[in-house]
Amino acid sequence: MWFGLNMPEWKIEIRQRLAGLRLEPTREAAIIEELAQDLDDCYAALLAGGASEAEAHQQTLLELSGSDLLGRELQRSEQRFKQEPIPLGANRRSNMIADLWQDLRFGARMLAKQPGFSLIAILTLALGIGANTAIFSLLDALLLKPLPIRQPEQLVVVNIAGPDQPERGFSSFSYPVFREMRENNSAFAGMFARSGLQMSMSAGGQSERVQGEEVSGNFFSVLGVSAAIGRVLTEADDRTPGAHAAAVLSFNFWQRRFGADPSIVGQTIRLNNYPFTVIGVTQRGFQGVEVGAAPDVRIPLLMDGQVRPKPGPPIFEQRGSWWLGVMARLKSGVGIEQAQPSADAVYQIAREPDLRRNTGDTTDDRNFRALRIHLDSAKTGASSLSRQFSQPLVILMCLVGVVLLIACLNVANLMLVRATTRQKEIAVRLALGAGRFRLVRQLLTEGVLLSALGGSLGLLFARWGTDALLGFLPQGRALEITIFGADLRMLGFTLGVTLLSALLFGLVNLKETAPQTAYIPYSQYEQLGQRILCVRAAGDPLALAAAIRREVRNLDPNLPVFNVKTFAEHISESVSRERLVALLSGFFGLFALLLAGLGLYGVMAYAVTRRTREIGIRMALGARAAGVLWLVLRETLLLALIGTVIGLPLALATTRMTEGLLFGLTPTDPLTIVIATLVMIAVAGLAGYFPARRAAQVDPMAALRSE
C-alpha cells in the first residue's frame, strides 16, 4: 500500500488497447481494473529501485506493450468468465473469497490514493473505539468479569439489611454468629468468613507493609482454589486460636517479592513481628473475592490474636464485635430466592442472645431487631470499589458511546464529501454493467477496512487510556485488565464496536456529605492497628521522608514506614471518584465537541461542493464575496441553532440522571447552560467559516465551465 504516492492513470491506455477486442462491458471493466493494479505495483517497484517518475512511467508502458501481461490477463479473464453461470448447488466459496480479496485490494488502493482523508477517518475512529474499549475494560473488570473460581455463579455475599437499607445492607458479622450460621445452615454448600488487614512483614532482613487477609479454614475449599506450590489452608489450620501459624502467599506477591522461588515453602516470615511458616502459594490468576483488593498473604482467622493482640477477652468470644465479611456457596440447584429465607431463619436463631439483651424502644433498638439477611450474587466478586464506581462508569460508557456515534457520523460526512469526487467512477462502473449490490458491497468493504485500521489503532489508545483510568481508582492497580491478550470478552467487544462503526458510516454522586473526623488520644482507643505521623515542614515535606524512615528504623527495625504523601495528595485521593467523572467527562465532552465541529464542517463542505454552480451564477449576477460568505455562515448557524433547541431539553433530562454526581452545581445551572451554548455556536461558526470562505472565492466562469 503506497500512501502519498501519485500513481499515473493507466486505465485510458489500457482501454485503448482493448478497444479492438469488442469485449463485454463487465468483462472489460474487470480486466482494466486488474491490469491497472498490476501496473501500479510495477510503477511503485521501479520508483523504489531508484528510477525517476518519467523513467518508471516509460518502463511500465513498455512492460504493458512488450510482455505477455495483457495476454495473461485476457486468458485469466476468459477462464473466469467461462465458469459462469455457476450451476445450482455448486460451491461458490472460492469465488466469494476471490471477490472479497479483490474488494479489499481495490478498497486499499482507493484509501491509499487519498491519504489525508484516510488518516483523518482512521484517527477519528481509533479515538472513538479506543475510548469505548478503555471504559468497557474497566467496567468489565469491576462489574462483569467472573471470579476465577469453581462455578462462580453459585457464590453469594451474605449481607445484613435493615428497614433503611432494604435492598443492600452491609456484610459484617461477629465470630459467634458466623460460627452458628455455618454449622446450622441448610441452604449453602459452604460458608466462609474473611477480614482484611494491613501487616508488617519481615523476611530476608527486609521489612515492608503488605496487604493481608484472615480467612476461615474452609475459604479455599469453598471457592475451589488450589495451590501453585505447597498447599492452601484447610479447616484443620483454623480450629484452635493461636495454634497454627501458617501463611499462604498470593501468586503475584510470590513472584514480585520472592522471585518465584519454590524454596519459600517451609520458610519463616514474620507478620506483625510474629513468626509464620509459609505453607504454599495460591494458583495463578486468583486475586481474591474482593474486586480491586489483592491480598499478599492469607493466614487462619483464629490467628488474629497473634497479629492484632488486644487486651480483654478474645475477639472470637465477643458477640458485639462485628468484623467479618461472610460469603457462601449455594447448593446445586438452589437459587438466591430459595436460600434467603432459610439463611435468615438461621441468622435470627444465631442472634437470639443479642435480641434478648436488646429490650429498648429507641429507633436504633427497633432497627437492630428488624435486621434481616439479604443475599447478593458474588459471581463477579464483592467490593465497595464496584459500588462506588459502577454508576460513574455506566454513565461514562453511555457518554463514550455517544462519542463513537458522533465519530461514525463524521466519517460518514467525510465519505459523503469524498463520494462527490467518485461520481464519475461510479457512473462508469454502472454503465459498464456493475450491479448496485456490487457497488454497495465495495463501499461496505472500504468501510470495514477503515474500521479495522481504526480498531487496531484504537487498541493502543485503549491500553494507554486504561492505564490512566486505573490511576484514578484507590485500588486500581490491583485490577487485572488485559487489552492485548486472550480475553475473548474484551476482543469480542472491540470487534463488535469496530463492525458496528463500519455499518454506521459505511452506508450513509460528586455531591456527598463530607466525612466527619473525630480526634481522640491513642490511650483511649486500644484497637488502632496503625499510626499516622503528621509532620509540618518549612519546605518540601517529602524531603523529610528519608530522615523519618531512618529514625523509625532506629526505634523499631520491624516497623515499616509506608504511604508517605503530602496532605494535598491525601485530599486528592479522597475525591478520586469525583476526579474520574469530572476529568473524563470534560475530555470526552471536548472530544465530542471537536467531532461535532468536524462533522458540521463536512456537511457544509459537501453542501458548498454541490452548490458550486449556483454560487457561480450568484456571483456572475453581482453577488459580493461577503454576501456569499454570510449565506453559508447563516445556514451553518441555523443548523447550530436547531441543534441547540433540540439538545437543550435532552441535556436537561440527562443531567437529572447524574444529579448525584454534580458538586456545587444544579442540573439547571443557568451559567453553565449559557456558556455551553455559546461555545457550541462558536465552534459551529468556526466549522462553517472555512467552507464559506471557499465559497466566497469561487470563480464564476470556472464554476460555470465545470458544469
In words, what does this structure look like?
The chain is an alpha+beta fold and about 700 residues long. The chain is built from 24 helices and 10 strands. Strands 2-3-8-5-7-6 form a 6-stranded mixed β-barrel. α1 packs across α2 and α2 crosses α3. It is elongated, with a radius of gyration of 35 Å. About 0% of the residues have low confidence.
How is this structure best summarized?
The protein is of the alpha+beta class. The protein has helices at 11-18, 25-48, 53-66, 69-82, 93-113, 115-144, 175-184, 219-223, 251-258, 304-307, 336-350, 352-357, 363-369, 384-420, 423-431, 436-470, 488-506, 545-555, 567-574, 576-610, 612-620, 625-657, 670-696, 700-706; strands at 155-161, 188-203, 206-215, 227-230, 246-249, 268-271, 274-282, 297-300, 325-330, 372-377. Helix 1 packs across helix 2, helix 20 packs parallel to helix 23 and helix 21 (612-620) crosses helix 24 (700-706).
Largest sheet, if any?
A: 6 strands, mixed, barrel
Low-confidence spans: 80-92
- The quaternary structure here is single chain
Beta-strand residue percentage: 5-15%
User: Main sheet: which strands, in order across?
Assistant: 2-3-8-5-7-6
How many DSSP E strands?
10
* Number of discrete helical segments: 24
Task: Give the class from helix and strand content and strand pairing.
Answer: alpha+beta
Give the proportion of residues in helices.
55-70%
Mean pLDDT: 78
